[in-house]
Amino acid sequence: MKEYKIHSGWQNTLHEVIYEADTPMGKIFDLLLFVLIILSVILVMLESVDEIDENYHRPLLVMEWIITGFFTLEYIARIISIKKPWKYIFSFYGVIDFISTIPLYLSYILAGSQVLIAVRAFRLLRIFRILKLVKFMGEASQLKSALKASRTKIAVFIYVVLILSVIMGTIMYLIESDEAGFTSIPRSIYWTIVTLTTVGYGDIAPETNFGQFLATVIMILGYGIIAVPTGIVTVEFSKHGKEKAGTNVVHTNTQACPSCTAEKHRDDAKHCYNCGELL
Amino acid sequence: MKEYKIHSGWQNTLHEVIYEADTPMGKIFDLLLFVLIILSVILVMLESVDEIDENYHRPLLVMEWIITGFFTLEYIARIISIKKPWKYIFSFYGVIDFISTIPLYLSYILAGSQVLIAVRAFRLLRIFRILKLVKFMGEASQLKSALKASRTKIAVFIYVVLILSVIMGTIMYLIESDEAGFTSIPRSIYWTIVTLTTVGYGDIAPETNFGQFLATVIMILGYGIIAVPTGIVTVEFSKHGKEKAGTNVVHTNTQACPSCTAEKHRDDAKHCYNCGELL
Amino acid sequence: MKEYKIHSGWQNTLHEVIYEADTPMGKIFDLLLFVLIILSVILVMLESVDEIDENYHRPLLVMEWIITGFFTLEYIARIISIKKPWKYIFSFYGVIDFISTIPLYLSYILAGSQVLIAVRAFRLLRIFRILKLVKFMGEASQLKSALKASRTKIAVFIYVVLILSVIMGTIMYLIESDEAGFTSIPRSIYWTIVTLTTVGYGDIAPETNFGQFLATVIMILGYGIIAVPTGIVTVEFSKHGKEKAGTNVVHTNTQACPSCTAEKHRDDAKHCYNCGELL
Amino acid sequence: MKEYKIHSGWQNTLHEVIYEADTPMGKIFDLLLFVLIILSVILVMLESVDEIDENYHRPLLVMEWIITGFFTLEYIARIISIKKPWKYIFSFYGVIDFISTIPLYLSYILAGSQVLIAVRAFRLLRIFRILKLVKFMGEASQLKSALKASRTKIAVFIYVVLILSVIMGTIMYLIESDEAGFTSIPRSIYWTIVTLTTVGYGDIAPETNFGQFLATVIMILGYGIIAVPTGIVTVEFSKHGKEKAGTNVVHTNTQACPSCTAEKHRDDAKHCYNCGELL
C-alpha cells in the first residue's frame, strides 16, 4: 500500500477553500480571486494611458502592491495545502500563478523593463481555472473537441492561405511601386493577408490598374475561401451534437485530488481515478 | 370570484383599436403609428444635418410638436382604456411609450440637452410592438429561439475573443510605438478587436516588421474564428427546423387581454390564459 | 379553334436563330451577342478613363456605333419574327433590349447626359438571357429557390440590423465630435453599417475612448451577427438538396414558344404548355 | 511482353531516395529539400528589403548559389534515375523543378530582370510534392473534392457578384466625384468589390449623401451574400463526410512507379496500376 504525507486538518480545509468550489468559503475565495485578476488587468491598462499614469501613479502602485500581496499569499497557500507541491509548481497553472506573482518584485531588479507589463497581462489566463467551475464549461469543451477534430483540415487550409499569400505578395511587389507602400516582399505579403482575410486597413493599397485588378482577384478569393473553415467547423459541430446524444454522461464535480491535483472526479467517486488517493 | 373595474363601451372600443389589429380601425391605427414613428426618427436625423437644420428649423419643430401631440394622446388613451393601468405603465412597452412622449417637453426644462436626441431615437423600439402583428414574426421567434439555444456557446466564444484581444493588445502595445497609434493598452485592444473582427479601419496600423507579423497572425486567427459562431448557429438552426416539424402548432391572434395585456391567445380562446378575464 | 397570324418560312427560321440555341446558327448568334454585350460594357469602362478617352475617342465611338447598329437590327428582328410582338416589347427582356439599343441615339438629343452611361451598363443584364441556355443554370435556380425560401428570415435579419444601426448611429453621433467625421446622424448610421458589416473604411473612425469602446461592441456584434444569414442559407441549402433527391426531373430544352415566348418546354412537348401553339 | 530500359542498381537506389519517402534516406532527402525550398523563398524575401540587401548582398548571393547548385544536381538526378525522362520533364512537377533551377543562371543573361524574383517565389509550389507524403493529405483531398463538387455553384455565385459589381460600380461613378477617388468606371468597380467583399480599404470612399447610402446597400448585400458560398461548401462537406463512411478505403503508399511516375499504389501492389512495370 502506498503511503502519503499525512495532511493535518487545517491543510485539508485550506485545500478545500483554494482548490474546490463546492463549499461557501471556496466560492467566496474564487469570486475574490476573479475580481482581483480582472482588477489587476485593468490596472495594467490604466497605467498605460499617459494622462492617467501621470495623475494617479501612486494609487495605482498601491493597488498593484495589494494585489501582488494577495497573489503571493495565495501562491504560498496553494503550495503548503497540497500533498505533492512539486507537481503543482511545475503544472501549467502553477507556472502561471508564479508568473502572476513576480512582476512587481522583478520591477525593482529589472527597472523599467517593458516586458513586465506583458507578464502582468498574462494573469488573465488564471481566469480559465476559475471558470472551469462554471456550468458553461461543458459547452466550451464541446467547442474545443469540435475544433480539435477539424484541426488537420484547418491546418491544410491555413497552409494553402499562406502559400497563396507568399506568391500573390511577391507578384504585387513586382507590380506596385514603393510609393503605394509595397516596399518589400514581406510587406507585400502582409498586405496580401490583410486583403485575403478581408481586414483591409488601407495603410497599403494598390494604385496601378493592374495592381487593383489583382487585388480584386485576391479579395474575391478571400471572400470565397472563408467558406472553407466555416464549412469544416459546422460539419464537425453537427457531428458532435449527434454523437453526444449517444454517449453516457457522467456527472463530475469541481473537486481536485489533494494529492495529484487531478480533476473532474465523478460525483460518486471515493478515490482519485488517477492516483487512488481518498477524496 | 375576482372582481374587475367594469369597462364602459367606449373604453372597450378604444382598447380594441389601440391594442389589437383585427378590426379595420385597429389596422389603420397601427399603420398611422408606424408612419409617425418612422417619421419622428427621420426628423431626428434631419435635424442633425447642419445645413437642413439651419434652413428648416421651424417646420421640423412643428412636425415634432404634431408627433409629440399624437404620442401624448395615444399614451393617455392606452392608460384609460386598460383595466389595470399600472401594469401597462411599468411594462416594457409602457416605459418605452412614456420615454417616446416626453423629449420635447423635457427640452424646455433641460435646454440644449444632447441626450434627448438619443431618447428620440429609442422611439424606433416601438416599431417592434406593431410588427408583432405582422406574419413574419413567426420566423423572428424561430431565429430568436435558435440564438437563445446557442447563447452559452456564443458567450464562451465572445469570452475567448476578449481574452485573446487583451493579451494580443498588450503585446502589440509593447511592440509598436506611439507614432503608429498604439498610445495605450486600451487603444491597442481596440485595434486588436478591429483586426480580429476583420473590420480593419486603418486609423491605427502596425509599422514595425514584427508588429505587422503579429497583426498577420491575429488576422488569420480572426478569419478562422468567425467559423465558430457560424457553425454554432447553423447547427442550432437545423435542429430547430427538425424539431418544429414535430410540434403541435397552435394558431394565435393579435388580441391583448384588456385586463393584464397578456398576448398570443389561441384563436378559439374565450378567456385570457393568464388572468382568466373574458376576451 | 384559336387562330394565329400565319408565320412565313423566313420568320420561323429567324425565330429559331434568335430565340433558341438548339441549331448551329442559333448558337453562333448567341455567341456573337454575348461577345458584343461584353464588348459594349468594356467600351463604357474605357470611355470613363480620361487618358484613354482623350486619345481614342474616335475609335471608341465607331465601335459604339457598330454595336448600336447590331443591337438595332437585332431588336427589329426580334419584333418581326415573333407572332405577338407587343407581348415581347413589354416583357422584361423586351424592355432591357430597347434600353440597350437607344443610348447612342439619345446622346444626340440629350447631349452630355451622364445617365446614358449607366443605361449602357445595364446591357449586362442581357447576358442572363443568353446564360439561361448554359447548363449551370440548373444550379442557379437551385440557389435562387434556396434564397427564396429563406427570404422572410433574411428580411427579419436585415430589419434588426437596420434598427440596431439607427440606434447605435445616433448614440455614436452624440459621443463623437464633428472632427472625427460624425457630422450628422445619417453619417453616423453610415459609419455604423460600415462597422457592423466589418467593411471598415476608416474614413470615419471614433477618437474618444468611449466611442472606441462602443465601436468595439458594434464590431463584435457584427462579427457574431454574420452567423445568422449563413446559418439560414446553409440550412435551406441542405433542405433543398434532400428534397431534390425525391422530385421527378423533367428534361427541358431551350425552345421558346413562337407565339407567347414561354420557355422551358419539355423535351417531348409538341404544344406550348402556356398557349397551346404548336412548337 | 513489353521491354523497358534496364535500370542498374545505383539508379534504382537513387530513384527510391528521390521519388519515395519510405526509406530513411528518402525521408532525409525530402526533409533537406523542404528546408532548402523554404530557405530559398526566405532569401527572396530578405533580398527585397532594401536595408538587408545593402548590408548582406554577398552572403545572400552565396546562399542562393548553394541552393541553385543543389537544385541543379537534384534536377539532373531526377532525370537520370527515371526510366522515361521525357515524361518527367514535361510533367507539372518537372516544369516546376526546371523553373526553380534556372533563375540564377538566367540573371546573368537577363541582367536586372524583375520577373526572376517572381519565378523564384514559385519554388514554393515544389513543397506540395513533398507534402503529398505527409499524412494530412487525405484531408486535403477531401477538401478538394468538396470544393470540386460545389464548383458550378461557386461559379454562378462569382458571376452574379461580378455583374453586380459592374452595375453598382458604374452607378457610383456617376454619383461620386473624382475627388472622392471615383476617377473612372474600372476604379469604381474596384471600389465596389472592395466594399462587397467587406475588405474596405478606405483609399476610395463615397463622400456624397446618396453615395454613402448606396455604399450602405452594397455593404449589407455583401454581408448577406457571403452566406451563399458558405452554405454551398458546408452542405457539400457534410455530404462528403457521409459518403466517405460508405466507401471502401484502400491504403496507398508513397512509392512512385520508376517507369511512368504514377503514384498512390496500393500497399500490396506488385505492379504499377498504370503501366504494369514491377514496383
Automatic annotation (TrEMBL), chains A, B, C, D:
GO terms of molecular function: voltage-gated potassium channel activity
GO cellular component entries: voltage-gated potassium channel complex
Alphabetic keyword roster: Ion channel, Ion transport, Membrane, Potassium, Potassium channel, Potassium transport, Transmembrane, Transmembrane helix, Transport
Regions that span the bilayer: 28-46, 58-76, 88-109, 154-175, 213-235
Keyword ATP-binding recorded: no
SUPFAM superfamilies: Voltage-gated potassium channels
Cellular compartments annotated: Membrane
Main location: membrane
Example GO biological process: action potential
Matches recorded under Pfam families: Ion_trans
InterPro entries listed in its UniProt record: Ion_trans_dom (IPR005821), VG_K_chnl (IPR028325)
Residue ranges annotated for the Ion transport domain, each copy included: 27-242
Protein name: Potassium voltage-gated channel protein shk-1
Organism of this sequence: Flagellimonas maritima
